[in-house]
Amino acid sequence: MQTLLTALLALVFALAADAAKQLPSSIPLCKVSLPKAEYSTCLNAAVQKAFHVLSIKGIPSVGVFPVEPLRVSEISIAEGGRAVRLQLTLSEAELQGFNSTRLISSSNDISEGGTTLRAEVVIPRLEIISQYEIDGHVLLLPIRGKGDSNITLGNVNVVVKIENDVETRAGEEYFKVKTFKINIKPQKINIEFGNLFDGDPVLGAHMNRFLNENAADVFGELSNSIEEAFAEILSQITKRIFDQVPYKSIFLH
Ligand SMILES: *[C@@H]1O[C@H](CO)[C@@H](O)[C@H](O)[C@H]1NC(C)=O
Ligand SMILES: *[C@@H]1O[C@H](CO)[C@@H](O)[C@H](O)[C@H]1NC(C)=O
């Protein structure tokens, strides 16, 4: 299996000026010199709170809108494997469910000149409502259509790992995202593509049933492309914050 093309998308951000900013005071800050166990407790509370603040209020001071619901103008997934070969574009997508994100664990390894952040969360239910356009083959069957879609994922386990360098700008040190990796494992998948095959009701219903019966396999084939799309979305939000908030205002020294 090989991913031919990867993700393409555009997120809408509010404008933000470029002076050094602070995180909202409702997010606790952790002193990196704390003993390990205390630091870890503090970090877990801070990460859980940060998810909450991001989903409900966003961080207006750095131009980040609330991510609940998250609006993404386009998510494009292309897969060129043997079992699944298709081009899928979701447009005007609305993603709902981030406001129920539960933290499982988090860690932060600080080393000379950088840091590695890792968080594991569960999203109990993630609903992706959008327009779609699809063309290709799924497990040997042709698929083609354009219309409304609803992709709903249940108990989604998400692991995010962000490696950062530190760079200095105007006398302040900032994190610079070096790699952003995400791993997404939904326990349940429900797919509904409206108007498949030019609205043919028999073929459309058959294909939706087929997709849902084989959802785990289909998701498995598409997971690299899906993870790249999500990494792109979430890394844009992360960069937006790290570009403006000096890292010593995120992790106290
Ligand atoms: C989460 O946000 C959705 C809208 O996207 C809302 O309908 C729902 O009530 C919210 N749930 C919680 C737990 O805040
Ligand atoms: C999307 O699909 C889920 C699962 O079938 C369903 O519960 C939900 O109501 C649907 N959402 C919309 C907006 O149709």
TrEMBL record:
Which residue stretches, if any, does this entry annotate as coiled coil?
A: none
**What cellular-component terms does GO give this entry?**
extracellular space
Checking InterPro entries in the record gives: Haemolymph_juvenile_hormone-bd (IPR010562), To_sf (IPR038606)
Domain of life according to the entry: Eukaryota
Show which residues constitute the signal peptide: 1-19
Q: Which GO terms describe its biological process?
A: circadian rhythm
Query: Pfam families, from UniProt?
Result: JHBP (PF06585)
Write down the Gene3D superfamilies for this protein, in alphabetical order: Haemolymph juvenile hormone binding protein
UniProt entry keywords in alphabetical sequence? Biological rhythms, Signal
User: Family, per the entry?
Assistant: Belongs to the TO family.
What is this protein's record name? Protein takeout
Q: Which organism is it from?
A: Cloeon dipterum
